């Protein structure tokens, strides 16, 4: 196992590449090339990829190596459903607690991820927080397609942000969270197609 001071930044760098669509869906991840790119040995790269395989962001096949996970239509819907359940659970544990404001100086996919983490942080349950974060990581790249598939998502974001940061009545927040997740679940097929067609950014 790699030393933590090498492993953690390597793992985070690989995960960030997955979350921003560095590779095409299903693409083989060349560990040796990745090690060169990151300026580390093969060991922390392999260790990071094995951890990401456990998190279902990477698929490993003996003899064929590591590939970017293919998020299917069914899996996308299931993740949305579980994410919603956990969001509502976090909301229920601290319905009147104010959330931490989200930094506006970042791209939409990162803002929406931080907004949902703000809901998680309202809860004192560390398992809810950890699972919302993990599901959010798996959904993160799909959020890059929100505007293309759904149209104007900034208005939706602003409504959610205002409700969450200002601790709006629980019924209002539940309605907004349900609407957010159901809207995407209805377009699960479009998301699956967009993810499958993504060419990646690697040359």
UniProtKB/TrEMBL annotation:
It comes from the Bacteria. Keywords: DNA-binding, Transcription, Transcription regulation. GO terms for molecular function: DNA binding; DNA-binding transcription factor activity. Residues 4-71 form the HTH gntR-type domain. This is Transcriptional regulator, GntR family. It comes from Sphingopyxis alaskensis (strain DSM 13593 / LMG 18877 / RB2256).
């Amino acid at each position: 196992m790699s030393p933590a001071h090498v492993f953690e930044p390597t793992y985070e760098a690989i995960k960030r590449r997955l979350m921003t669509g560095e590779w095409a869906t299903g693409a083989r991840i060349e560990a040796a090339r990745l090690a060169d790119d990151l300026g580390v040995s093969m060991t922390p790269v392999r260790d990071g990829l094995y951890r990401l395989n456990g998190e279902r962001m990477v698929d490993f096949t003996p003899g064929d190596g590591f590939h970017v996970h293919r998020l299917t239509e069914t899996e996308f819907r299931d993740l949305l459903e579980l994410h919603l359940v956990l969001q509502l659970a976090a909301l229920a544990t601290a319905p009147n607690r104010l959330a931490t404001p989200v930094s506006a100086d970042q791209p939409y996919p990162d803002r929406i991820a931080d907004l949902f983490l703000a809901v998680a942080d309202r809860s004192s349950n560390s398992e809810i927080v950890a699972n919302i974060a993990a599901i959010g990581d798996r959904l993160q790249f799909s959020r890059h397609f929100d505007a293309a598939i759904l149209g104007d998502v900034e208005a939706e974001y602003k409504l959610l942000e205002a409700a969450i940061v200002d601790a709006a009545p629980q019924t209002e927040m539940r309605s907004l969270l349900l609407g957010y997740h159901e809207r995407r679940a209805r377009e699960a097929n479009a998301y699956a197609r967009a993810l499958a067609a993504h060419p990646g950014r690697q040359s």
